[in-house]
Amino acid sequence: MRLLVVEDDKDLNRQIVTALELAGYVVDRAFDGEEGWFLGDTEPYDAIVLDLGLPKRDGISVLADWRKANRTMPVLILTARDRWGDKVQGFDAGADDYVVKPFHMEEILARLRALLRRAAGHASSEFSCGGVSLDARAGRVSVDGNPIKLTSHEYRLLSYLMHHAGRVVSRGEIVEHLYDQDFDRDSNTIEVFVARLRKKLGVDIIQTVRGLGYLLAPPELKDADLKDRIGKSGGTRPGR
């Protein structure tokens, strides 16, 4: 999952980014409202942490403009303002959740996990498919109850596919959501990680849909059901 942190306090920005990266996310950062608005308007983030008291542009106007442009990614407001009126203003502008400073980093992580799974239509932080289980809260993966050790890149890939199980995910979408802007988009890195992941899992749940991308589905899924799911998803990423 690819996240954006918009926070002008450099120390706090660094702390949040570090915690998110340790939790397995790819994170971009911005330190003022103009930069934050531009990144959020042009990059396909899975969620954004947005401070309200920003230089150049305040967080409320940034968020309001994202929503006017039909940018639907979950946004977690982060601010020192604790008056109920400020919270109402944030929610009315399009915020999905709200955290008041000071806070514990574990709360930020928990709230982001909740936003991400709700955005993907899941109620639990535990995902399963064809005997493979992923616990997003603990960062653990198992097959038929046996723990599997994955690299951070392999875990991020499996997590993204789990969040979007049953839908064809294109290679371009994977690159956009799992890697930063410096990633070589012409490389075969995605194919390499998919092959490694398949080998480690030992369960045929990652299916290649020729010309479209990858589909996470139980191995017992019949061909007719597979074609039906491909037809419904169209092999494209969700709209902005």
From TrEMBL:
Highest taxon listed in the record's lineage: Bacteria
UniProt keyword DNA-binding, yes or no: yes
InterPro entries attached to this UniProt entry: CheY-like_superfamily (IPR011006), OmpR/PhoB-type_DNA-bd (IPR001867), Sig_transdc_resp-reg_C-effctor (IPR016032), Sig_transdc_resp-reg_receiver (IPR001789), WalR-like (IPR039420), WH-like_DNA-bd_sf (IPR036388)
Alphabetically ordered keywords of this record: DNA-binding, Phosphoprotein
Domain OmpR/PhoB-type intervals: 124-218
DNA-binding residues: 124-218
PANTHER family tied to this protein: REGULATOR OF RPOS, RESPONSE REGULATOR PROTEIN CARR
Designated name of the protein: Response regulator transcription factor
Taxonomic source organism: Methylocapsa polymorpha
